[in-house]
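Transposase, Sutterella wadsworthensis HGA0223. C-alpha cells?
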Amino acid sequence: MNIECEKTVSSTSQIRCHDADQSKIKHMIRHKAFVFKLKPDGATRRSLAKACGCVRFVYNKGLDWNKEQREKDQTFRVNYPKLCALLPEWKEEFPWLGECHSQVLQQGMKDLMTSMVNFFEGRAKFPRFHKKFKDEDSIRFPQRFKVNEASRQVYLPKIGWVGYRRSRFINGKLRSVTVMRKADGWYVSILTEREIEAPVHPKAGREIGLDAGVKKTAALSNGKIYLPVDAFRSSKDKLAKMQRRLKRMVPHSQNWKKQQQKIAVLHKEIADTRRDHLQKLANDICKNHAVVYREDLKIKNMTASAKGTLEEPGTNVRQKSGLNAAILDQGWGILFGLLDQKMKELGGEVFAVPPANTSRTCPKCEDVSPLNRLTQARFCCRKCGFEGNADVVAANNILRRGQRLRACGELQSTAAVQVNRPSRKRRAGQQQEPIRRDPQAPENA
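C-alpha cells:
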C-alpha cells in the first residue's frame, strides 16, 4: 500500500516584509513532511529494527535514571545535556549501542526530554516506559541523510540506501528524516522547509458554524450535512471474528503471530479509512470558508467510562460504552486538528466556542429548554414553534455565539499563524546535500 499523503507538521513561521513596488509582501517559513512507504530488504529491516530497539533502550534507561535521581532529590530537574552525557558511558557498558548512529540515540533522549517538559507544564502525564510491539517504533535522523529522487532512494547513516515508493515530488529544503514501523511495513517521513508568501484565504469574509455529531459527522450552519463513514462499526464483525480465532491459537506460536499481524493491519485500514474521510471533509470546509466556528468539546471527559467503583457502581454502563465507541469512531479530535492545520495553510481561522446549550437554544426567540429537542433529528421550539434540523440549528447557534464572543474579544483562533524567531543557521559541515532531482520532474513539483 502506497501512502500518498502530504502532512503539514507546522505552519508556525517567521514573517518577513519586503518592499516591492511600494507594497509590503509578507513571507513565512513553512515546514512540511512528505510520507512515503519504504521498500527495505531483509537485512535493512533487521538494521532498522535494531536501531529502534536501541532508541527504545536508551529512552527507558534515561527515564529510569531520572526516576532514581528524583528519589534522591525531589528538586532534581533533568535536561537534555545531562541525558546526552550518559550515552558514552552506556555505550561502554553495552557495546551493541554502537551499532546505532549516535544522533539517533540523542534524538531518543530529546523525545524523553520533550515528554518530561510536557509533564511539568501540565500537558501530559508522566512518561512511561516504552514496550516492544506496544509502542510505535521510530528513529529520527537530523543530519547526514541524503535523498535521491531520481533513483527513489533515501540514505540513512549506518544503514545505507533504502528505496521508497514515490507518490509525489519533494519540495523545500531538507531538515530531518524519520523512519517509522507500522502494521503493514516501514515508512519514511521527510521534513522540509521553504519560504512562501503569507497565505490570504481566497474566501475572505465567509464564516460557517460546525456542529460535530454521532449520527452525522458534521453539520454546517448553511444546512450542509456530512454523513459518517463508520470505519470501525463497518469492520466490527470481521475484527471480532479474527480476534476469536486468535484466542483459540497457542500464544506466541507462528500462527498466533501471523494472526496478530492480520489484526494489526485491519486496525490500520480502519484508521486510514477514517482519516481519509476526515481529510476530505476538512478540505471541503476550509477551502470554501475563511472562518470556522466549532464547539470546544472536551472529548476525553465525554468518553470517560461510566463503570464506576465497587462502592459506587455506575448505571447504563453498556449504553455509555456504545456511545463512547461511536464518538471515538467519528474522530472529532482528528477533525479539529485537521481544521486547524488546513486553515493555517490557507490563511483562515478556527474558533472554539463554548458548547453549553447550543442544541437546546432556539435561533429565532433564543428560548433555552431541553424540551425543544424532543428527538435526535428534529428541533421544535416550545415557545415560538420554530422547527428545523437539530444539528443545523446547533451549528447556527455555534456560529452566532462565536461571532458575538469574537466581537467582544473573548475568543482566540486555534489556527492563527504564530510569529517565531528565524531558525538558526547550521554550522559549517552540517548542511544537507540538495535533493537529486529526476530530470523529467516538473520544475514546480
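Confidence is low (pLDDT under 50) at residues 1-23, 418-434.
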